[in-house]
């Protein structure tokens, strides 16, 4: 099925497709990778950019929203930035090219381009389906990233920070990570942009092997002219635990997809999301969680602060397979609207085929409580400060759950910076 | 300290008039009790003094140390030394009590052109004030008023009042929801703040609180006006005979007038 072939290509579609003939000479990979790229490009040509008629893109009509595709810019590279947390092991990608990686016992870093050249990464370039725009674009154009392996049983103390730096122009990167059996690690994926026009995509693949525990933070700080597509794909093994914490700030047009498969019994997945949306930003977080076996659990809490003319979207789908009895899955999406022109759309969905499960979802939209505001002001706290405290309180609750003091402080710092600029 | 002159006020949303020509003067150092049946406008008066936007003053004035405060927002009034102890203190999840105290104290100090309090000095003051009120410091690590019992909330209000050192304290039904032990502790906390340059307005439905916080004057509020003023014996009289008698007298006065 394709619904776009009869429609003329938009300028953005043309730019995305036509760039291939110019870029192909610079794209690393063996014959298998070349075939994977061609397949992805072909899918992109057939499907085009998804419009609201494609269900998974209903609230983010990319065909309408994507007007300009920033071209590749060989001069858009930049140097590694300071890590969010001191003492982190940093692996940096700048303008699509892996430029440097630190060293840590139990962790190996390999440039993704090498795995494209030797073809071992070709199977991972397969797209998720006809509506996988992010996979199509990224597989067509991916140039670099870091392939990271965390050894079985390794407990990595220092956080691993993956930096994807894109101050302007265009790039497409991947971060495949494998956490071996029983390994423990904290990984911080920084999607860091600049003020220039940019178009980028970044796909992470995380395998959490049996008994492993991973905390993964996606911190997106993008400029007002940046378009960014993110995708996080993971499988979670037996008795393994993944906490994924997403913070989105900035960006003109952002879509972050999260696709989780709970494959091992006793596995647990926690998603916490904070969307700080201001200006004209359109930010979409779309998640699918598949509970495939018995006795798995997941909780998703997304908190959104919307001001200016920003618009946010959260789509959350929990699928419970027929054999996945005793699944415990909960999803909540709470929005604090600070302006009359802001908008947030939440679409929670449950698809349950098992009959002995505990699943639920809820969504709320609120404004700042006038009672709370009055109480704080009656203690002498000026209105702007009082509002800031209340907005901070709305999201700080889930930051504090991380129970890692330097991380909590760093994220609260980002929150405060955003508040002083927007609220 | 406080002069309320012919005050008329209504609910902004629907225009219902609640305060209808209220006059009240509270001198420096005076403890004034305001009593009245349900619906007489007691809590509304406390909110209007604190500057809540839900009410509109349509006539009259409120003078604080000789200056009208009607144009000041709640934060500005607080910085000038007006404190309202809430009947129902707000639970605010996500705002740590200690952080709130620090922000509030320093916002007021800043507004008055004073230096900010450093953390050790702040902690010392909080420790001292909370021991006076038999409060566990561990409570202050929790979010503001969240999970506090009714009595703990009222104590926390008096703790804030002690730390903020206001000149005009308005206590809105501070006795409601308190058992006798908590009532004594809270009253001691209030009495410790009595001073010649601090006035206290105690709003209460019952005389009980006034056994512990002995007022200099008692004013009966009914239908948005003070219908009778007297000394502490007036509170006793109300306790014995109820409000009906005084309301009856006031009605006659109005009719003959």
CATH topology type of chain B:
Rossmann fold
In the CATH hierarchy, what is the superfamily of chain B? P-loop containing nucleotide triphosphate hydrolases
CATH architecture of chain B: 3-Layer(aba) Sandwich
Number of discrete domains of chain B: 1
What is the class of chain B in the CATH system? Answer: Alpha Beta
- Determine the most extensive contact between two protein chains: A-B, 23 and 29 residues
**H/E element order of chain B:** EEEHEEHEEHHEHEHEHEEHH
Q: Averaging pLDDT over every residue of chain B, what do you get?
A: 92
Name the beta content range of chain A: 35-45%
- How does the helix and strand content of chain A classify structurally? alpha/beta
The unreliable regions of chain B are none
Cα Rg of chain A: 21 Å
Q: How large is the radius of gyration of chain B?
A: 18 Å
| Strand order, largest beta sheet of chain B | 6-9-10-3-11-12
Low-pLDDT regions of chain A: none
Quaternary organisation: heterodimer
Strand order in space, largest sheet of chain A = 2-1-5-7-9-11-13-15-17-19
**Helical percentage of chain A:** 10-25%
Q: Quote the distance from N terminus to C terminus of chain A.
A: 45 Å
**What is the CA-CA span between the terminal residues of chain B?**
30 Å
**Residue share in helix of chain B:** 25-40%
Keywords (chain B): ATP-binding, Nucleotide-binding
Organism (chain B): Phyllobacterium salinisoli
InterPro entries (chain B): AAA+_ATPase, ABC_transporter-like_ATP-bd, ABC_transporter-like_CS, FeS-cluster_ATPase_SufC, P-loop_NTPase
Protein name (chain B): Fe-S cluster assembly ATPase SufC
Quick description:
Chain A has 423 residues and is α/β, with parallel strands linked by helices. Chain A contains eight helices and 19 strands. Helix content of chain B is 39%, strand content 28%.
Walk me through this protein's architecture.
The complex is a heterodimer of chains A (423) and B (257). By secondary structure, chain A is of the alpha/beta class. Chain A folds into two domains: 11-367, no CATH class; 368-423, no CATH class. Chain A is built from eight helices and 19 strands. In chain A, the strands form two sheets. Chain A has a ten-stranded mixed beta sheet with strand order 2-1-5-7-9-11-13-15-17-19, with helices on one face. In chain A, strands 3-4-6-8-10-12-14-16-18 form a nine-stranded mixed beta sheet. In chain A, a hairpin with a 2-residue loop joins strand 1 (89-94) and strand 2. Chain B has one domain: Rossmann fold, CATH 3.40.50.300. Chain B is 39% helix and 28% strand. Chain B has nine helices and twelve strands. Chain B has helices at residues 42-50, 74-79, 97-111, 119-132, 150-164, 180-191, 208-212, 232-241, 244-256, and strands spanning 2-11, 17-26, 31-35, 55-64, 67-68, 82-85, 92-96, 143-144, 168-172, 199-204, 217-222, 225-230. In chain B, the strands form three sheets. A six-stranded mixed beta sheet of chain B has the order 6-9-10-3-11-12, sandwiched between helices. A four-stranded antiparallel beta sheet of chain B has the order 2-1-4-5. The A-B interface holds A 370-372, 374-383, 385-386, 389-390, 392-397 and B 50-54, 73-75, 77-79, 83-84, 86, 89-90, 92-95, 100, 103-104, 107-108, 111, 143, 160, 164.
């Amino acid at each position: 099925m394709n619904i776009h072939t009869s429609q003329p290509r938009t300028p953005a579609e043309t730019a995305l497709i036509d760039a291939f003939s110019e870029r192909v000479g610079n794209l690393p990979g063996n014959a298998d990778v070349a075939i994977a790229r061609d397949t992805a490009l072909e899918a992109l040509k057939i499907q085009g950019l998804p419009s609201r008629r494609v269900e998974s893109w209903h609230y983010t009509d990319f065909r309408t929203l994507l007007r300009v595709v920033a071209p590749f810019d060989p001069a858009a590279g930049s140097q590694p930035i300071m890590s969010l947390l001191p003492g982190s092991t940093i692996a940096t990608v700048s303008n699509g090219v892996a430029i440097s990686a630190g060293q840590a016992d139990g962790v190996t870093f390999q440039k993704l381009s090498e795995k494209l050249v030797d073809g071992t990464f070709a199977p991972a370039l397969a797209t998720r389906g006809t509506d996988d725009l992010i996979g199509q674009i990224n597989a067509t154009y991916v140039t670099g990233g870091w392939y990271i392996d965390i050894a079985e049983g390794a407990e990595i103390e220092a956080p691993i920070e993956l930096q994807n730096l894109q101050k302007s122009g265009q790039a497409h990167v991947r971060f495949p990570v494998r956490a071996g059996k029983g390994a423990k690690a904290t990984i911080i994926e920084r999607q860091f942009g600049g003020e220039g026009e940019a178009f980028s995509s970044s796909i992470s693949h995380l395998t959490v092997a049996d008994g492993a525990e991973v905390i993964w933070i996606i911190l997106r700080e993008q400029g007002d002219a940046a378009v960014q597509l993110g995708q996080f794909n993971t499988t979670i093994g037996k008795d393994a635990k993944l906490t994924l914490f997403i913070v989105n700030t900035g960006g003109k047009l952002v879509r972050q997809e999260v696709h989780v498969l709970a494959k091992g019994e006793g596995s647990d997945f926690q998603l916490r999301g904070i969307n700080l949306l201001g200006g004209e930003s359109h930010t979409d977080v779309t998640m699918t969680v598949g509970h495939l076996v018995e006795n798995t659990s997941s909780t998703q809490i997304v908190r959104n602060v919307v001001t200016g003319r920003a618009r946010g979207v959260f789509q959350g789908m929990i699928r419970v397979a027929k054999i996945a009895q005793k699944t415990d899955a909960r999803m909540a999406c709470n929005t604090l609207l600070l302006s009359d022109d802001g908008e947030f759309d939440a679409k929670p969905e449950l698809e349950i085929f098992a009959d002995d499960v505990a699943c639920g979802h809820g969504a709320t939209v609120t404004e700042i409580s006038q009672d709370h505001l009055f109480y704080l002001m009656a203690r002498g706290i000026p209105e702007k400060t009082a509002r800031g405290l209340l907005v901070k309180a709305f999201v700080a609750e889930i930051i504090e759950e991380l129970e890692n003091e330097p991380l909590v402080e760093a994220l609260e710092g980002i929150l405060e910076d955003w508040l002083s600029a927007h609220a | 300290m406080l002069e309320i002159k012919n005050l008329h006020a209504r609910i902004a949303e629907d225009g219902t008039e609640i305060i209808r020509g209220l006059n009240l003067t509270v001198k420096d150092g005076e403890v004034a009790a305001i009593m009245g049946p349900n619906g007489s406008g007691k809590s509304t008066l406390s909110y209007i003094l604190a500057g809540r936007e839900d009410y509109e003053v349509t006539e009259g004035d409120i003078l604080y140390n000789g200056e009208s405060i009607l144009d000041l927002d709640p934060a500005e009034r607080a910085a000038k030394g007006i404190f309202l102890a809430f009947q129902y203190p707000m639970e605010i999840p996500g705002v740590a009590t200690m952080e709130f105290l620090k922000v509030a104290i320093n916002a007021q100090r800043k507004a008055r052109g004073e230096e900010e309090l450093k953390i050790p000095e702040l902690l010392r003051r909080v420790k001292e004030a909370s021991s006076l009120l038999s409060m566990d410091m561990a409570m202050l690590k929790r979010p503001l008023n969240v999970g506090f019992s009714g009595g703990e909330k009222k104590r926390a209000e008096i703790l804030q009042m002690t730390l903020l050192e206001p000149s005009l304290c308005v206590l809105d039904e501070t006795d409601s929801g308190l058992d006798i032990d908590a009532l004594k502790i809270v009253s001691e906390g209030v009495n410790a703040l009595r001073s010649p340059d601090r006035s206290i307005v105690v709003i209460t439905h019952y005389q009980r609180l006034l056994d512990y916080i002995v007022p200099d004057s008692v004013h009966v509020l009914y239908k948005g006006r003070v219908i009778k003023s007297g000394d502490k014996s007036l509170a006793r009289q109300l306790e014995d005979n109820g409000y009906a008698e005084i309301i009856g007298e006031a009605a006659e006065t109005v009719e003959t007038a």
